């Protein structure tokens, strides 16, 4: 079992009202010194078996098809720590 | 300017119907070999100035207060690449 993480963020040129709302709320709570906040999505996929280059390529296709909207979003795919039998990530 | 990433995921013992829906949709699209999908949130915070340990600690407080619900969610805070003047992350 291997774990692949897909991070999906709005492209830098796309406005992010959700991130702006979080930024404003942080300011109201007294958290200063934050110039901007962008909010995106994170997917953790547990693959059966090894994360071979072919399977990573398939995950990249899946990300561009379903997980992200490539018109307005960028995504990155990376292999993370192996998944332990209890489903939690292994210790680092 | 420094960039801090906060990843927020549901705790492993909390059901994730959104992740399950993505998992089912991937299967219908022909992407097999995926054992499970969990969906969470990713926040990118651009801090003014350096990401000192004190400021990271403040971001951790902010994450536990506003970005995540610690009752049902885990979060991690980490410093990423410095932010370039145009707001994009620097090349890796």
Task: Explain what this protein looks like in three dimensions.
Two copies of one chain form a homodimer. Chain A is elongated and about 45 Å long. Chain A is built from two helices and three strands, in the order E-H-E-H-E. Chain A is of the alpha+beta class and 92 residues long. Chain A has helices at residues 17-28, 53-67; strands at residues 2-10, 34-47, 73-79. Chain A is 29% helix and 33% strand. The first copy, chain A, has a three-stranded antiparallel sheet. The interface between A and B is large, with 39 and 39 residues.
Task: Report a brief summary of the structure.
The structure is a homodimer of 92-residue chains. Chain A has helices spanning 17-28, 53-67; strands spanning 2-10, 34-47, 73-79.
Question: What are the key terms here?
Answer:
3 strands; 33% strand; homodimer; 92 residues; alpha+beta
Structural class of chain A: alpha+beta
**Which regions of chain A have little confidence, pLDDT < 50, spanning 5+ residues?**
none
Oligomer: homodimer
Computed CA radius of gyration of chain A, to the nearest angstrom? 16 Å
- Total strand segments of chain A: 3
The outline of chain A comes out as elongated
Question: Topology of this protein?
Answer:
Two copies of one chain form a homodimer.
Chain A: E1 2-10, H1 17-28, E2 34-47, H2 53-67, E3 73-79
Antiparallel strand pairs in A: 1-2, 1-3
């Amino acid at each position: 079992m291997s774990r692949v993480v897909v991070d999906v963020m709005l492209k830098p040129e796309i406005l992010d009202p959700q991130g702006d709302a979080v930024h404003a709320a942080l300011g109201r709570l007294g958290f200063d010194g934050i110039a901007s906040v962008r909010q995106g999505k994170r997917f953790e996929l547990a693959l059966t078996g090894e994360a071979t280059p072919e399977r990573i390529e398939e995950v990249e296709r899946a990300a561009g098809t379903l997980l992200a909207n490539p018109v307005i979003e960028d995504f990155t795919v990376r292999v993370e720590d192996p998944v332990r039998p209890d489903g939690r990530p292994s210790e680092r």
